[in-house]
């Protein structure tokens, strides 16, 4: 770890000594965006929307490279190990601020091995049950869980995934005990819910909305302050009787630590411009994502650090740590 940091520092320092004219043509070769989850996942969809617009702005190919595995750790580690030359960035999301507390040790420092560029989007979730479930509403699910502590279960796409955290936070806020069942992704969890093997699950809007609209699953509530346009008539968790429940996911872009500040600024400027486009904001909204307001690298760094502290305390309090 120390050797990696030293090498990055040296390469970053050398890059910073180059006169601006030496990088005036940046980018002069293809740019890579590493996504730590599979194709069609929310971070992948986001990366492809950004890549399309970035390619138009910069006139260079922007390649989206999927590096799934270990709940997002493998892909982010690949970003950390990449040359800090502005040609490789990656998508970081909420889970990456949970994993250090959940597993005790990861192969990179979430706050240290990256140069945050900008938060890109906020994501909201829906609480889902099977269409024929006996739970007509959130209150019905909560009452049943209280009558049978530890007997009902909720699924997620894996330990440390947003759906896992949402389920744990929901149980804490509602004062209930439900069993967490991790699966290999949200699709597998949804199939299990349809089959009646689990009783509930949280899923991002991009996953939940098609399932609810098709009738394959039923939405009981959404995790946002107001109604979700794509799920009319579905209450917020607060409206459904679960107070003090406020959790939204985020996805942003980071570069390897040591990337020159002028290149970080160029990336941030591009992200800000792209997210300001009405067409992009509408497209993201249709995917269940809310484009973030313009934010600086320093502000995104603050978000990441705040989330690391928040989830470290939550994992400890809920005794969620593995191993």
UniProtKB/TrEMBL annotation:
Residues 1-24 form the signal peptide. The keyword Signal applies. Pfam families: TctC. Gene3D superfamilies: Bordetella uptake gene, domain 1, Periplasmic binding protein-like II. Transmembrane segments: none annotated. The keyword RNA-binding does not apply. PANTHER family: BLR1237 PROTEIN, TRICARBOXYLATE-BINDING PROTEIN. Belongs to the UPF0065 (bug) family. This is Tripartite tricarboxylate transporter substrate binding protein.
């Amino acid at each position: 770890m120390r050797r990696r940091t030293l090498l990055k520092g040296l390469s970053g320092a050398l890059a910073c000594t180059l006169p601006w004219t030496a990088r005036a043509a940046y980018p002069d070769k293809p740019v890579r965006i590493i996504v730590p989850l599979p194709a069609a996942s929310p971070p992948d969809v986001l990366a492809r929307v950004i890549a399309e617009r970035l390619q138009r702005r910069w006139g260079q190919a922007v390649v989206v490279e999927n590096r799934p595995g270990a709940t997002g750790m493998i892909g982010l580690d690949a970003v950390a190990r990449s040359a800090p030359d502005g040609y490789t960035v990656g998508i970081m999301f909420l889970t990456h601020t949970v994993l250090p507390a959940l597993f005790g040790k990861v192969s990179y420092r979430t706050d240290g091995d990256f140069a945050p560029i900008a938060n890109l989007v906020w994501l909201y979730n829906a609480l889902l049950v099977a269409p024929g479930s006996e739970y007509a509403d959130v209150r019905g699910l909560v009452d049943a869980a209280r009558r049978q502590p530890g007997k009902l279960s909720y699924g997620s796409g894996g330990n440390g995934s947003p759906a896992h955290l949402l389920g744990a936070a929901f149980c804490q806020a509602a004062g209930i005990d439900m069993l967490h069942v991790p699966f290999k992704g949200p699709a597998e969890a949804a199939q299990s819910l349809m089959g009646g093997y689990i009783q509930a699950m949280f899923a991002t809007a991009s996953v939940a909305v098609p399932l609810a609209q098709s009738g394959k699953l039923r939405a009981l509530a959404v995790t946002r302050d107001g109604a979700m346009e794509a799920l009319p008539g579905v209450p917020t968790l607060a409206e459904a009787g679960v107070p003090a429940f406020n959790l939204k996911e985020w996805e942003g872009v980071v570069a390897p630590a040591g990337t020159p500040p002028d290149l970080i600024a160029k990336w941030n400027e591009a992200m800000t411009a792209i997210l300001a486009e009405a067409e992009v904001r509408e497209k993201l909204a249709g995917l269940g994502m809310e484009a973030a307001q313009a934010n600086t690298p320093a502000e995104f760094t603050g978000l990441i650090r705040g989330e690391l502290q928040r989830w470290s305390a939550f994992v400890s309090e809920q005794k969620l740590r593995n191993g």
